[in-house]
Write a structure and sequence with these properties.
The chain is an alpha/beta fold and 257 residues long. Helices cover 34% and strands 25% of the residues. The strands form 2 sheets. Strands 6-7-8-3-9-10 form a 6-stranded mixed sheet, with helices on both faces. A hairpin with a 6-residue loop joins β9 (207-211) and β10.
């Protein structure tokens, strides 16, 4: 691998609940290359979302380091990271334009410049005619597009996506996967994407990191062999279906019922 964009060094994290210690991640190390689209895949509770929150600085590990662009950013927010959440996390009282411009406003960008920047990203996700709408006036898919535009507007060094399509219907999810790939091919950001969907992981990723059951460790890393640009027809090819089945068999060993 080339010089790492992101270097996770021996990350360990546990929580105490009801007087009991719950180990979530243990001695987790991983390097992510510049411009890589990396997907974290694993059963529920294996630490995928916790790892993303640690990378973003929302949570602090018990031990280990998060190094981004050669700088230790462990336990600090901002610093070149943009997060897209599953639950949209939009401000209900702000319009689409104001939501997308929020991070730029916090950063102190002058109003005219931040609105111009926000409009550019709103156009990129296909919502130019909705910039004055409020979140409750938008579908779930449209709200998630706003979340993506807001994360991209701050020009992050790395984009973190925590099951962004998990709450959406299958058709909307498929459409937004294609839109995300189109945006990624234009913006060329390093992306770390969390999902439970094997098909989604295979369609989006350069590499898939499969996590073991809690405490999360790397069980397997899969280099996705499909060329880019990718289109949805690839999901029906024998090669895609065979790899999906192989990953499912591996994950099935970890499912706790």
């Amino acid at each position: 691998m080339t010089t790492a964009k992101l270097d996770l060094r021996n990350i360990t994290k546990s929580y105490t609940r009801g007087g009991k210690t719950l180990a979530v991640l243990e001695d987790f190390s991983l390097q992510v290359a510049p411009l890589e689209f990396l997907v974290l895949l694993g059963s529920s509770g294996c630490g995928k979302s916790t790892l993303l929150r640690i990378i973003d600085g929302i949570d602090k590990p018990d031990a280990g380091q998060v190094v981004l662009d050669g700088k230790d950013v462990t336990g600090t927010t901002g610093a070149g990271r943009g997060m897209v959440f599953q639950s949209f996390e939009l401000f209900a009282w702000r319009t689409v334009l104001a939501n997308v411009a929020f991070g730029l406003e916090v950063a102190g960008m002058p109003k005219a410049e931040r609105l111009k920047t926000a409009r550019r990203y709103i156009e990129m996700v296909g919502l130019s005619s909705f910039e004055n709408a409020y979140p409750h006036e938008l579908s779930g898919g449209m709200q998630q597009r706003v979340g993506i535009a807001r994360a991209l507007a701050i020009d992050p060094s790395i984009l973190l996506m925590d099951e962004p399509y998990g709450a959406l219907d299958v058709q909307t999810r498929d459409l937004l996967q294609d839109e995300l790939l189109n945006v990624w091919e234009r913006q060329r950001k390093t992306v770390i994407f969390v999902t439970h969907s094997i098909e989604e992981a295979l369609y989006l990723a350069d590499r898939i990191v499969m996590l073991s059951p809690r405490p999360g460790r790397i069980q397997q890393i899969i280099e996705v062999p499909f060329e880019r640009p990718r289109r949805s027809e690839i999901k029906n090819t024998p090669e895609f279906l065979a790899l999906r089945q192989r990953i499912w068999q591996a994950l099935k060993q970890n499912v706790r019922i």
